[in-house]
Amino acid sequence: MEEKEISQAVIGRLPRYFRYLGELRDEGTERVSSQELSDIMQVTASQIRQDLNNFGGFGQQGYGYNVEFLYEEIGKILGLDRKYDLIIIGAGNLGQALANYMNFERRGFLFRGIFDNNPVLYGKKIRGIEVQSMECMEQYVLDNHIDIAVLTIPKSEAAEVAEKLIRCGIKGIWNFAHLDLKVPEGVQVENVHLSDSLMKLSYNISRFQNEK
Ligand code: NAI
């Protein structure tokens, strides 16, 4: 496939295509038109065609898209055709909830370890994996070639822990601490703020009420 720069907006929409196509595939649907995709995804058919054209366009006039093929190709673009070894730093409420959510494994994100700096938690098993001390973290990342670290620790701790991870060669940080982490080139970070989505919801509720 031809390599070209794809906008972040398009990349941001790909997981949604992937999710819907996965559902169609699981239902046994073999092909789908951009209009049908548009109806289920509530995105215009022309937006779908434009987005998918970025990758060479997978559709055929009069046929639509082959669901299995498109699902696989978008998976490859998203880097989901490989496995990632992942650790969680911070075994509190959020860290444990994420560790217990099995679906990430289905997508190839393998939960390998969980670390905390609270001795009370050391040895506690979360989905069969013991919480380890932060003192073991760096060596563990190096020895096990960990790709991704999930940060579920307080904001005040995030920068220092991220620095340690980067020194050990971590490739990506999925950051839930309320701080937009800055990382050197070559390390990828995804800052997640669930409250952003909640604020969007509150905006839409107030806008709807004001229009009435
Ligand atoms: P929690 O207090 O239950 O868990 C935090 C854990 O981090 C504790 O077990 C604590 O011992 C550990 N910890 C603290 N400093 C550490 C360090 N330097 N190294 C290793 N472990 C350390 O808190 P909860 O509810 O799990 O939330 C975790 C963080 O995520 C909080 O900062 C919270 O604000 C944030 N959060 C972010 C969300 C988002 O959408 N981005 C949503 C919910 C929480």
Verbal overview:
By secondary structure, the chain is of the alpha/beta class. The chain folds into 2 domains: 8-77, Arc Repressor Mutant, subunit A, CATH 1.10.10.10; 84-195, Rossmann fold (3-Layer(aba) Sandwich). Helix content is 46%, strand content 17%. It contains 9 helices and 9 strands. The strands form 2 sheets. It has a 7-stranded mixed β-sheet. It has a two-stranded antiparallel ribbon with strand order 1-2. The radius of gyration is 20 Å and the shape is globular. The protein starts with 7 loop residues before the first helix and ends with a helix. The mean pLDDT is 92. It binds 1,4-dihydronicotinamide adenine dinucleotide. The site of 1,4-dihydronicotinamide adenine dinucleotide has 25 residues, from helix 5, strand 4, helix 8 and helix 9. Residues 89-95, 115-118, 134, 152-155, 157, 161, 176-178, 192-195 line the site of 1,4-dihydronicotinamide adenine dinucleotide (NAI).
Kindly summarize this structure in a few lines.
This protein is α/β, with parallel strands linked by helices and 212 residues long.
Give the structural class: alpha/beta
Q: What is the CATH superfamily classification of the largest domain?
A: NAD(P)-binding Rossmann-like Domain
- Would you report the number of β strands? 9
Strand order across the largest sheet? 5-6-4-3-7-8-9
How many angstroms separate the termini?
Answer: 50 Å
The CATH topology of the largest domain corresponds to: Rossmann fold
How many separate structural domains? 2
Can you summarize the main beta sheet? 7 strands, mixed
User: Which small-molecule ligands are present, each listed once?
Assistant: 1,4-dihydronicotinamide adenine dinucleotide
Specify the overall morphology. globular
Query: Which percent band covers the strand fraction?
Result: 15-25%
CATH-derived architecture of the largest domain: 3-Layer(aba) Sandwich
Mean pLDDT: 92
Radius of gyration (CA) equals 20 Å
Element order: H for helix, E for strand? HEHHEHEHHEEEHEHEEH
Q: Give the C-level CATH assignment of the largest domain.
A: Alpha Beta
Q: What low-confidence regions span 5 or more consecutive residues with pLDDT below 50?
A: none
Report helical residue fraction: 40-55%
Helical element count?
9
